[in-house]
Amino acid sequence: FRSMGRTRSFDVDHTLDQLVTVFWRKGFEAVSIDDLEQATGVFRASLYKAYGSKHSMFMLALERYWQKVMRERQEMLSDTDPRRAVTRMFEHLVKRLADPQTPRGCLLTNTCVEAPYGDEAVCTKAAAYLSELETALQQARHAQTTALDEAGLLQAAQQHTATATATLAHAR
């Protein structure tokens, strides 16, 4: 006679989103299992059973962050109209910066800052995601530069870019 295990009483995807937020706000090292329990409302035994170790939870959170947050940005940048792509990207970033519910910074960047003192696998994964996003940004920038150059507007655009860069550097 084999007894059946209990049915999972929480939404695994929703809970993973909550894990992303906790790790994003605090970083891997600062997050305790108590923090994860409190944020998700799920007991530690259930968290461990569903996701594995704290390290596994963090790796899954990085993957989820990439899929939900960064892929969206990457898709915006792939718009066939380079001006619209860059505009949508910056509008999206401004909206997220203004949202008090969104953690500050970038989980991937924060991870790369923290990871050199810790886990190589975490740093490697975060760096690979950032590299993918950087490629998308470079492709969008190249398409935009080509379109502006063809329209004779490249110099003015470069001046606006410098102003926008300075503004973003001072944001939050």
Describe the structure.
The protein has 172 residues and is mainly alpha-helical. The chain is 74% helix and 0% strand. Helix 1 (12-26) crosses helix 2 (33-40) and helix 1 crosses helix 4 (54-77).
Radius of gyration: 20 Å
Q: Which structural category fits the helices and strands?
A: mainly alpha
Number of strands: 0
| Helical proportion, percent range | over 70%
Report the sheet with the most strands, covering strand number, pairing sense and barrel closure.
none
Q: Estimate the strand proportion.
A: under 5%
Ranges with pLDDT <50 over ≥5 residues?
none
Name the helix and strand elements from N-terminus to C-terminus, one letter apiece: HHHHHHHH
Mean pLDDT: 82
Calculate the terminal CA-CA distance, rounded to whole Å. 60 Å
Overall 3D shape: elongated
Number of helices: 8
Name some characteristics of this structure.
172 residues; mainly alpha; 8 helices; 74% helix
Helices and strands in order, then pairings?
Blueprint: H1 12-26, H2 33-40, H3 44-51, H4 54-77, H5 82-98, H6 107-114, H7 120-150, H8 154-170
Helix pairs in contact: 1-2, 1-4, 4-7, 5-7, 6-7
